[in-house]
Amino acid sequence: MNKRQFLMIVAAVVVLAAFGLFFQTIQPSVETDSAAQEQAGQAETQSEVSNEELLAKFERALGIIHDQYVDEISEQELYEGAIEGMLRTLDDPYSVYMDQETATQFVESLGSHFEGIGAEVSMTDGTVTIVAPFRESPAEKAGLQPNDKIIEIDGNSIDGLSLYEAVLQIRGEKGTTVNLTIERAGQTERFEVPVERGLIPIETVRSDVIERDGMTLGLLEITSFSEDTADRFAEKLAALEDQGIDGLLIDVRGNPGGYLNAVEDIGKLIIPGGTPIVQIENREGEKIRYVSNLDERKPYPIIGLTDRASASASEILSAALIEGGGYDVVGEQTFGKGTVQQTIQLGDGSELKLSLFRWLTSAGNDINGEGVMPTVEVKQPDYFYTAPLSVGDEGALRLDMMSEQIRNAQIMLKGLGHEPGRTDGYFNEQTANAVRAFQNANDLPATGEIDEETASRIQQRTVESVREKENDLQLQTAIQLLIEQANQ
Description:
Blueprint: H1 3-19, H2 34-68, H3 75-89, E1 96-98, H4 100-108, E2 113-116, E3 119-124, E4 127-133, H5 138-141, E5 149-153, E6 156-157, H6 163-170, E7 177-183, E8 191-196, E9 198-201, E10 205-212, E11 215-222, H7 229-242, E12 247-251, H8 260-270, E13 276-281, E14 287-291, E15 302-306, H9 313-324, E16 328-331, E17 339-345, E18 351-360, E19 376-377, H10 404-415, H11 429-441, H12 452-467, H13 473-486
Parallel strand pairs: 11-12, 12-15, 15-16, 16-19
Antiparallel strand pairs: 1-18, 2-9, 3-4, 4-5, 5-6, 5-7, 7-8, 10-11, 13-14, 13-18, 17-18
Helix pairs in contact: 7-8, 8-9, 10-12
C-alpha cells in the first residue's frame, strides 16, 4: 500500500465515523427533494477537489519531513502523529487514537479485571486529568479526586505525552507503586500521591439491604456500565424485590460511565413506560429517543445518589430518574460528560475512539460541561475532599509553621473528632493539642508534631472514616428521605 492509498483509507474512516457509525439500532432516515440532492452532489464534488489538494499538500510535507528532518524518523511515526494531530484539532478530550498496544490494553480493561490504579482519565486542555476514580480502587483509597491534573509520573514530566502513552505509564503490575504529582483546584501547591497498583475487579453491581425504622431498603451500587451490567442489575434487583423491599437506592457515585446500551436497559427496568430514558443527537441535530417500555411504575420509591465523579452513563441514569421517573436524586452536581464515543478499528489493530453523538437528558437537556443537578444537594463533610496528607522534605510539621499540608491535616483531625481550632494551615498550640490527642488515641508518641508516621496514620484513619456508612452524609440523607417517601 502506498502513502496515498493509506491516507485515503484514513480519510474514509474519519468520514464514515463522522456520518453514521454507531449502534446498529440507530438508523435515522432523512428525506430530501431532488433540488437538495443536486446541491448536495455539487458540494460533494467541490469537497473532493479540495480534499485532493489537501492530501497533495500533506504528502509534500510528509516527504520533506521524512527526507530532510535533522533526525531520522519513520513513516509510521509520522502517520500516527498525523492521526493524533487530527484528533487534537477537535479539542475533544474523549476522542483519542490508540495504537495496537494501547488498544489491546483498552480491551483488557473492559474484561473481568485488570491491573492498575482504577481511574478513568481524559486529556483536558493538554493535561491528563482524572475523570473519576473507581469505587474502592487504589486511586480512590489514595485520595485522588475528579478533575485532579496529573503533572508528573514517578517524577518525570508527562508534557507532550498522549493520553494513552500516559495511561501505559500509570498502569502496571499489582503490588508496584506509581507516584503521581497532582495539581488540584483550590490547592496552592502541587503534591505527590503514591498509589499502589492493584487488581481492579470489574464487579459492576453490588447490592445490600438496609434495615431502618422497620423498613427494608435495597441498595444497588453501580460502579461502571459494562457489557453485563444491565443483566447483573436485573438479577440483583429481582433478588431485592423478592425480599419485599420498601424502597430502592441506586448509587452511581464515582461511576465514570460506560456502554450506552447498558444504561438504556437499566432504565427500562425502573423508569415508567412511555418515558424517554435518553435522547441521542447527531451532528445535523437529528434526535432519536430511547423510550422505556416498563409495564407499570414500581410500587416503591426510588432515590439516586450522585457526586462529582458520576459521569456519562451515570448522568444519563440520574437525569432519567429525575426527569423521566419523577424521582429524587441526592448528592452533588455530576461531572458533565454529554457525548457518546464509538471505537472504530483502523485495520491494523489500532483504533479511533471518536465522539459521534451528543446525548440529551430525558427532557432534551444538554448537560455537556454542566452536569446534572441533584434534586437534594448534599455535600460530604470537608475531610472527604482533602488532598492526601504527607510530610515533605522540610521534615515534621510543627508549631508556627504554615502550609497546605497543615491545612489538610487540620481538616482531617477535625473530621476525626480532634478539634484543631482552625483550618487555615497555621500550626498553633490548639492544633498541636489535637495532634497529641490523635497520637494518644492511636498508640503513637505524643509529640504534638506531625511526622511521617503520624501523617500516614491520620491519612489511614481518614480513609477508614470515609468508608463508614454512618459518616456518609449523602447516603444517610437519601435513606431518611426514602423512609419518609415510603411512609407516605
